[in-house]
Amino acid sequence: MIRFLILAGYFELTMYLQLSGKLDRYINIHYSYLAYISMALSFILAIVQLLIWMKNLKLHSHLSGKIAKLTSPLILLFPVLVGLLVPTVSLDSRTVSAKGYNFPLAAGSTGTVSEDGTTVQYLKPDTSLYFTSNAYEKEMRKELKKYKSNKPLVISTQNYMEIMELIYLYPEEFMNRQITYTGFVYNEPGHTGYQFLFRFGIIHCIADSGVYGLLTTGNQQTFANNTWITATGTLTTEYNQKLKQNLPVLHMTQVRESDQPDNPYVYRVF
Fold this sequence. Notes:
Distance between the termini: 40 Å
Shape: elongated
Structural class: alpha/beta
Number of domains: 2
Largest sheet: 5 strands, mixed, barrel
Helix content: 25-40%
Order of helices and strands: HHHHEEHEHEEEEEE
């Protein structure tokens, strides 16, 4: 019986997340078909477990039947209540302030490992964990070819993660080129005259999510945290004293406030 309840509860929770539009806060939307498959399989397996339990029902004692009647609804309702009562919120600059940001200093490192064992990435999306060294270099060079040009570059929701990774890998390929993108502002204490322009992104699922973007400067107007802006400027590299390394910096020439996108997250497309 307990197997039926667990499988049915998973099916209900996944169905709720899908119908409420919250599923894309947990996984890359390009992998949503996997959620549909697992949802269908859990439903089928739940039915199988229910039939097995009903077949063996006569073997249970009267007392066990009463306990099952009392506990079964609670177990079945638990995942649904979690989905309904635990709020699904979009991450913003308060999350960055609470966790801080960190850029990997060691060669090959991608971020920091949290207490639960998940890797939190910052500034630069890093997909090297999913490739061999040679395959990763080959894949990044292949993607870079799509953006080799002197024409103005517009970073969209669809290519955000891809281009940000390329900018940090090959900053010289984007130097002095006009770049436009949208994100939310984060003001790091001690960075007078500079503001980070971020978006939260998901590579595969929430376990490898992070906050990605560029340090910006060159604009006299200062925006409050969480203000969504669209910035246009040219890219250079500057030595960051706090992080002890060169970082790509967007020198803004145009900036305007913009509305938060319907889905503030961005996803890696392979």
